[in-house]
Amino acid sequence: MTNPVERVVRPIDRWQQRHRPFAFAFGVIKKFGDDRGGMLGSLVAYYGFLSMFPLLLLAFTILGYVLAGNPSLQDSIKDSALAQFPIIGAQLGENIHTLNGSGLALVVGLLGLAWGGTGVAQAVQFALQEVWDVPNRQRPSFVTRMFRSLLFFAILGLGVLLAAAPAVLSGIPAVPSLLKSFGVVGSLIINVGLYLLVFKILSPKDLRWGDLLPGAVLAGAGWTMLQTFGTLLVSHQLRHTQQAYGTFGLVLGLFAFLALGSQLTVYAAEVNAVRKMRLWPRSIIQPPLTEADRRALVRLAKQEERRPGQRVAVRFEADGSEGGSAAQRGGDPR
After folding, report:
1. Among 60, 61, 134, 273, which is disulfide-ready with 129 (CB 3.0 to 4.6 Å)?
2. Residue 321: helix, strand or coil by DSSP?
3. CB 314, CB 133: distance < 8 Å
């Protein structure tokens, strides 16, 4: 006998399953919950916060030596990097200065900063492995993860250079009028391209560019909007905290900004995974399970395979069907 809530939700559930856009959207939300996407986003935000200061210090120190004879270009690149963080970017710049010195001490310091900055790259890799339901036995080794972290940093550096390009080119007389039309559209294109590169490098190898493009477009558009309207969000956060808490208010605003970006990234990756693995329509109330529900649950269980010879089998007792056969009918991208 159904309860009153179930009698209301059942028709809504049947309706969303019959309409593809709503079924897909709910499939993304459902998988985000299955993967504990909120925790994954928080993990990326946390390590992003811890990694930001070492990475900025490392980047500013390298710029100081490479562009020692061109301080104006140094300032342009620094301002472009800090502009990624509305309002708080200027305050970050006031508290981060380049390392001085030479010889072995400087090299050791730079290596220490690089190591300290790998946390966010590792967290993003872990989040994407979870999103794509990669079994533990198939996940990259420590050496592979570190190599991918270096590629991740290279992409971030490329993004900073591309963001600095308009400021650098503005010194050329024929260019400024063209840069005026670049604006938000150019930032959107750059952000989509950077997300696409990150997803390609850190996701399972057998995924094609087309498999990752929808999520990259969503994340790139979302990050562009966050940069454009983030000033209002962060200003609101700081307005209520900075007078009372000072530096702690800045930390809250920065972490709020990183948390929004991290959640956006995880949701964008989920869009790619749900689309590629056809994990929709999903049911709101169970039973019965849809075929997509079975495939999703099988993949979640198989993530726990930790040794090369270990295999996890899944059976759904409601209808006695084998999880393996359900996964085969649905297709497996790995």
Report:
1. 134
2. strand
3. no
| Model confidence pLDDT, tens digit, residues 70-80 | 777 666 666 66
Please, are residues 137 and 311 in contact by the beta-carbon 8 Å criterion? no
Does the structure show a pLDDT above 70 at 320? no
* Cβ neighbourhood burial of 271 (10 Å; 0-12, 13-18, 19+): buried
DSSP letters along 17-35, please? Answer: HHSHHHHHHHHHHHHHHHT
pTM above 0.85, yes or no: no
Q: How many domains does the chain have?
A: 1
Residue 112 reports pLDDT greater than 70: yes
Q: Between these two residues, 309 and 320, which has the higher pLDDT value?
A: 309
Q: Is residue 32 part of a domain?
A: no
Which one is predicted more confidently, 78 or 150? 150
Is 253 a member of any domain?
A: yes
Quickly list DSSP for 141-199: PHHHHHHHHHHHHHHHHHHHHHHHHHHHHTTSTTSHHHHHTTHHHHHHHHHHHHHHHHH
What range defines the domain where residue 229 resides? 37-278
User: Which is more confident, 231 or 118?
Assistant: 118
Contact in structure between 326 and 319 (CB atoms under 8 Å): no
With respect to residue 112, please indicate whether it lies within any of the assigned structural domains. Answer: yes
Of 36, 52, 88, 89, residue with least CA distance to 263: 36
Instruction: Please report whether residue 30 resides in a domain.
Output: no
